[in-house]
Amino acid sequence: MTKPDAAPNDDLLARSYWTHLLVWSVVFTFVLLAAGLSDTWIYRAASGGEVVAFALAIALIVAVAGGYAALQTSPDWTMGEPKTPRSKRIRWLIAALVLVGLAVALLVITGDPEPGGKILWRNGPVPQTSALLAVSIWVLAMPLIIVAGYTTADEHANEAQVSGMAVGFQAFAYAAPIWWMGWRGGFFPQPDVMILFIATGGVSTVANLLKRYA
Amino acid sequence: MKNRLKVLRAERDWSQAELAGRLDVSRQAVNAIETGKHDPSLPLAFKIARLFGMGIEEIFDDEA
């Protein structure tokens, strides 16, 4: 019988959870790096592509080796969570969210005449077809994912989500009028909706994670 | 709200993940309830009580 203060496997599971998260984060970083380098490599294939190709090969090797190591140490995506139909649906939803993000990013990148995917980090115009397709994916997929997320997550996760959203909106409601009025008064540059969106999302995510794990 | 969830779980030699699976919640939810950071809803409290074959007030104490 295990003592109440040392319930079975909890410490081990917690360690496994964070190790798993760290390893997969590193793997995905190198996958994204490889994707960016591939994009550059394709555009520069005609001249001077050797250095990029070498970096691409390194990124791919690290991504594959890291992915293999992660699969060997934690051969599933549960990260210590119970294997139930609900948790399986959560993992599918996370995968769907990643796919939507990748699809939108790829559509925007493929419409860019310059290599490297820099268009993602700019505020300039995007080709009309790319924008229309990206918006269509977002419009159709996001409501489904959001509703499915709320109905699938357990009450603790939903509470953290609602709490995070509230803090995020409070941050937005605080910052947006200051920027807007400051702009009208000539103190600040014109308000940028994407900076506000990303900042609000960041604050919301941090508040969500603090509520969930702290 | 204080509760005896961790003790009851340990008596049955269940990990947090095992208990979470039986309750169909996440491991974080079990951890948050055990540490008093999350008060379960009434339906979840009933589910917990049924799982351990006890009354809600035998597991949760709102006066402690």
Shape of chain A: globular
Structural class of chain B: mainly alpha
Q: How does the major sheet of chain A shape up? A: none
* Series of H and E elements of chain A: HHHHHH
β-strand percent of chain A reads: under 5%
Biggest pleated-sheet summary of chain B: 2 strands, antiparallel
Oligomer: heterodimer
> What is the count of DSSP helices of chain B, taking H or I runs of 4+ residues?
5
State the distance separating the first and last CA atoms of chain A.
29 Å
Order of helices and strands of chain B: EHHHHHE
Helix content of chain A: over 70%
Q: Which ranges of chain A are low-confidence, i.e. pLDDT below 50, for 5 or more consecutive residues?
A: 1-6
Could you say which overall geometry of chain B the principal axes of the C-alpha atoms support? globular
The number of strands of chain A is 0
Biggest interface between chains: A-B, 25 and 25 residues
Q: Let me know the average pLDDT of chain A.
A: 80
Protein model, in words:
- The complex is a heterodimer of chains A (214) and B (64).
- Chain A is mainly α and 214 residues long.
- In chain A, 75% of the residues lie in helices and 0% in strands.
- Chain A has 6 helices and no strands.
- With 64 residues, chain B is mainly α.
- Chain B is built from 5 helices and 2 strands.
